[in-house]
């Protein structure tokens, strides 16, 4: 799925974008399916293996091209720790502040990556993901203390050059991958349509439960690494910019 050049670029920058996973038509069908099943005020993905929404989101995160891309980066896959749906409703200004996805520093955190699959156009106007390339190995000044405090402080941000921000615009059906230690944020949605991103939080084959901060993984076709229990279902949050 990825060329050696793309793999090298990911490890240099902590981010890779524009990987085609679904055709635009398949992405549109996934949105229609999702919107038939979604309920108002949904906060989590249902966790019954056969639930149709669970099956839909699980199949998007475990799409063979997503698994192939993660495997190319990590030298195999351990599994998916959890997922998140990030839905930005039209015309809502609220964004997400600069943060990282783990307090574990490099190199312990090396095998932790996120896949971000766009189901609708993700653009500067709709609040696409923004990243600071090249910082996944950095020891952040005043960095996050633990998994419940991952937002970067003013001091941490002052030590980073946020003018180097990269906007990860994606067409429907395209994927970006960002390392857990790559600082990222996003703005509100100024367009008239929803911005929907499906995020998988992946663990590589050499990661321990202590570093993953979880003892369970959704398997991605192979065995989960030593110390983890395999799960049949995906745990995922349903995050909307309607709530805080
Ligand atoms: O989709 C977004 O706007 C934010 C995603 C994010 O923060 C994440 O994947 O950790």
Describe the structure.
With 244 residues, the chain is α+β, with helices and mostly antiparallel strands. 22% of the residues lie in helices and 25% in strands. The protein has six helices and twelve strands. Strands 1-7-4-9-2-12 form a six-stranded mixed sheet, covered by helices on one side. Helix 2 (24-37) packs antiparallel against helix 3 (52-61). It is globular. It binds 2-oxoglutaric acid (AKG). 2-oxoglutaric acid (AKG) is lined by residues 86, 96, 101, 114, 116, 129, 184, 186, 197, 199.
Layout of helices and strands:
Blueprint (H helix, E strand, L loop, with lengths): L3 H10 L1 E6 L3 H14 L14 H10 L2 H11 L4 E10 L7 E4 L12 E7 L10 E3 L22 H5 L7 E2 L6 E6 L4 E3 L8 E9 L5 H4 L3 E3 L10 E3 L4 E5 L4
Parallel strand pairs: 2-12, 10-11
Antiparallel strand pairs: 1-7, 2-9, 3-8, 4-7, 4-9, 5-6, 5-8
Helix pairs in contact: 2-3
Helix content: 10-25%
Class derived from helix and strand content:
alpha+beta
Flag low-confidence runs. Answer: none
The ligands found in this model are: 2-oxoglutaric acid
Mean pLDDT over the residues: 96
Please report the distance between the alpha carbons of the first and last residues. Answer: 37 Å
Portion of residues in beta strands equals: 25-35%
Large-scale geometry: globular
Total count of helical runs of at least 4 residues: 6
Main-sheet strand order equals 1-7-4-9-2-12
The overall strand count is 12
Largest sheet: 6 strands, mixed
């Amino acid at each position: 799925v990825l060329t050696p050049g793309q793999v090298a670029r990911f490890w240099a920058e902590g981010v890779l974008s524009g990987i085609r996973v679904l055709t635009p038509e398949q992405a549109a069908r996934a949105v229609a399916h999702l919107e038939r099943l979604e309920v108002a005020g949904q906060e989590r993905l249902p966790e019954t293996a056969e639930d149709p929404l669970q099956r839909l989101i699980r199949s998007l995160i475990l799409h063979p091209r997503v698994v192939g891309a993660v495997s190319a980066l990590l030298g195999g896959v351990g599994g998916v720790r959890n997922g998140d749906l990030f839905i930005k409703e039209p015309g809502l200004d609220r964004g997400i502040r600069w943060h990282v996805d783990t307090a574990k520093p490099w190199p312990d955190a090396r095998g932790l990556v996120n896949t971000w699959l766009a189901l609708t156009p993700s653009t500067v106007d709709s609040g696409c993901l923004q990243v600071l390339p090249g910082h996944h190995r950095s020891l952040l000044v005043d960095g996050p203390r633990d998994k419940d405090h991952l937002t970067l402080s003013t001091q941490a941000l002052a030590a980073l050059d946020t003018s180097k921000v990269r906007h990860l615009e994606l067409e429907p059906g395209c994927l970006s991958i960002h390392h857990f230690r790559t600082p990222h944020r996003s703005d509100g949605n100024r367009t008239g349509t929803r911005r929907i991103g499906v995020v998988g939080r992946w663990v590589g084959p050499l990661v321990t439960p202590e570093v993953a901060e979880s003892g369970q993984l959704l398997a991605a076709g192979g065995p989960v690494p030593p110390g983890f229990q395999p799960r049949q279902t995906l745990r995922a949050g349903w995050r909307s910019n309607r709530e805080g």
